[in-house]
Each structure stands twice: as structure tokens, then as C-alpha cells.
Amino acid sequence: MLTDLPNVLTLLRIAAIPVLVALLALHSALGNVAACVVYTAACITDYLDGALARRWQMLSELGRMMDPIADKLLVGALLLALAGLTVLPVYSLYAAIIIMLREILVSGLREYMASQRATLPSTRLAKWKTGIQMVAIGFLIGGDKAAVTLHISFLPATLTGGILLWISVIPTVLSGWGYLTAGLTRMMASQPRKSSKIVS
């Protein structure tokens, strides 16, 4: 049900998106620090909703559908916000474009698989992809301003975030290719075979 705690946590992750964008739009060190706190809480809910659902036997089709959607909305919205604020270093804007294209592709494949009454289960590689992306975005959200405010200015937060975003492209592309081949295999298998006629 929608009111189950794991699903509520997933919805809270979605609700955090406009708050994060608004905090980033302040263009201030305190805004960035606050955004880091909210973002960290959102990432914790990403772990908790699945862990609690498995522990309390609350697994449902609704939760299985909402969890990846919440992740994609969070990552996509923040990448767009960071791109708009021009705080993506080392040409990582192109990494963000690759990530967004992959997410759109996989969403389309999931939609197709659902129409065929089949599923496209998440892989371990995709989970690594999500994890690296979330850490990278955390560094980018805080940036050098938050590092100075927190007295850790020795840490090049923005540069670290940009490099990690590029690193996340590797599992992003590999897992996307795996999903694509699985979807194409399903498409080929679902097409009716043409019967050959013997001409006498």
C-alpha cells in the first residue's frame, strides 16, 4: 500500500527534489550545506525503503515500480539543476548527458517490458552505477563552498564530484547495454515466426 513505511520513504525522496533545487538556487555556502544534509537524508531513504520492505515482508509491485522512478527523478533533476548552475567541472556535463540518455532508454525498455507482461530486474552493476552517481552528486551539491564552510577546504569537492561522475559513466553504459540486449531479445522472442510455404 502507498501508506506502508517503505513507500512513504520513497515518496519523501521524491518530495525532497524541489527542496534541493531551491537550496541550490540560493547560490550560497549555507544553502549548499543544507542541500547536502537534505540530499544525504534522501540517499539514506533509498537504502532504508528496500531494506525495510524486505525485512518486514512488504514487497509490492508498487514499491518495486516507485523505487527506481524516485532514483531517476532525484538524479535527473539534480543533474539538470547543476548543469543550469554551471557547476559541472572537467566536461562532466557530457557525462550527465550520457547518464540522462541511458535513463530515458531504460525507462522506455521497462515500459515495453511491462506491456509484454515481463520485467526488467535491476542488476548489481546498475546498483553500483546508482551508488557512484549519488556520491558524485553529493560532492557536486556541496561543492567547494560547502567544503570551506565545513573547514575541509583541502578537499576539492567540485573536482572530485566531476571525476566520480565520469567514473559512474562506465557502469551506466555497461548496465544500459545489458538492459538493451535483454529488451531486444524479448522483442525478437515475442515476434511471431513467419511460416514458410512449399511451392510445388
Summarize the structure.
By secondary structure, the chain is mostly helical. The chain has 6 helices and no strands.
Q: Can you give keywords for this protein?
A:
200 residues; 0% strand; 78% helix; mainly alpha; single chain
Descriptive account of the structure:
This protein is mainly α and 200 residues long. 78% of the residues lie in helices and 0% in strands. It has helices spanning 5-25, 29-55, 61-84, 92-115, 124-149, 157-190. Helix 3 (61-84) runs antiparallel to helix 4 and helix 5 packs antiparallel against helix 6 (157-190). The longest helix has 34 residues, at 157-190. The model is unreliable at 194-200 (pLDDT under 50).
Describe the secondary-structure layout.
Elements: H1 5-25, H2 29-55, H3 61-84, H4 92-115, H5 124-149, H6 157-190
Helix pairs in contact: 1-2, 1-3, 2-5, 3-4, 3-5, 4-6, 5-6
